Amino acid sequence: MGAKFKNPYPKKFLSLLCLSTLALLIFYHSFVPNKATLQNKPLFYVPSSRPTNAAAATDGILVCNRTGYRSDICHMRGVVRARPPNSVTVHSTERRHETVRPYTRKWETSIMSKITQLNLASGPDVDPRPCDVHHHVPALFFSAGGYTGNTFHEFNDGIVPLYISARAFNRRVVLVVLNYSAWWESKYRDVLARLTDHRIVDFERDARAHCFPEAFVGLHIHGDLTIDPSKARETNASIADFRALLDEAYKPTIHSAPPRAPRPKLVIFSREGSRAITNEEALVRLSESIGFDVERLAPKPTTTLKSIYKVLSACDAAVGVHGAAMTHFFFMRPGAVFVQIVPVGILGPARACFAGATEAAGLKYVEYVVEVEESSLYAEYGRDAEVVREPGKVNARGWEETKRVYLDGQNVTLDLARFRGTLEAAFENSERRRREESIAS
């Protein structure tokens, strides 16, 4: 028999070595996912729970998910260098290159061409230059361009998706904005302050190179003015949560809330130009005769969100012709009545924009579809004209024709005898709700 091997290491030492090796393997597989797995799974914004300094010790990751109809999402982890105006790199043994325009309307090639394209790259020798600014929290890249300037699109394409995407970080994220404008940040400052504790980076104008342990590029979007909790499973976000954030942002700005009025308050969204209510004065008088206190709201580009919030958060009902300004329904209290007047030819878009979203926000949605005689198209073209009789054929020619004829080309003269029933129902609902609130308080 050969000589028996004598282990030079104590058994206790070997046990500790095995446990240490096992712990290292668990750590690696817990925090460094397989790249193929990441590539095939939907990316959601859940920041890594690894210590920040661990990023340099592991191979970098660059993966993208392009399966979404509305937006592309990319994720980078490791030593991420963001160098203006459009370069973001991560050190990795794998060479990879991706281009992304981080805006939530990727199917619209015309508007996407105006969004800054980011060049994402990974490799062993990408951009070895030092960073000017070192961040210890992840970055979230997105564009504030596109249709920004239109309230519906500002919320639908930007603010709501930003809320969905940033919520998981609990403010520990740097918002890196492309197509930045100072008025946009000023307008939404109170909301942005609830999404990040860090200074916003105007990426294309900031000449400094920024380093991050992790970066997410693009925003998640669930639909028009929609938050689907089943899709936001990591954060369990909902429209009610978004509405609560708006309260948190704007309630403190109302220094003296007016006392509760003895009569229900109706807000009329007043428009000039297209889709105006031509007999608005008569509508005000009718509403007051039914029992409402009436306030007209006509937001301008310079109107602050806090002033709009002050009006709508105190109302019991709101009425308006379909338009972007009605996106401010987010400021109304749950249980209030939201009456959308739908002109000829745009029933589909009107419902898509506001029907489901207002109900999800806890409002009572009411739809008043105008008769052709209530539209200015009737007087301009006549009852038998195609634009009046068969709007489906006109809409089939494309969005530009829909916009020209039905959005930009008509006003509404309400049949007040017909509309009276809608107002009376809104008043009764408001009175009942006020009684219930009084009992509850």
UniProtKB/TrEMBL annotation:
Q: How does it sit in the membrane?
A: Single-pass type II membrane protein
Question: Which keywords, in A-to-Z order, does the entry hold?
Answer: Glycoprotein, Glycosyltransferase, Transferase
Glycosyltransferase 61 catalytic domain boundaries: 242-339
Q: Name one GO cellular component term.
A: Golgi membrane
Where it sits in the cell: the answer is: Golgi apparatus membrane
Signal peptide stretch: none
Which pathway does the UniProt entry assign to this protein?
A: Glycan metabolism
Q: Name one GO molecular function term.
A: pentosyltransferase activity
| Pfam families in the cross-refs | Glyco_transf_61
User: Known InterPro entries for this protein?
Assistant: Glyco_transf_61_cat, Glycosyltransferase_61
Q: What is this protein called?
A: Glycosyltransferase 61 catalytic domain-containing protein
Q: Which organism is it from?
A: Acorus calamus
Origin organism lineage: Eukaryota, Viridiplantae, Streptophyta, Embryophyta, Tracheophyta
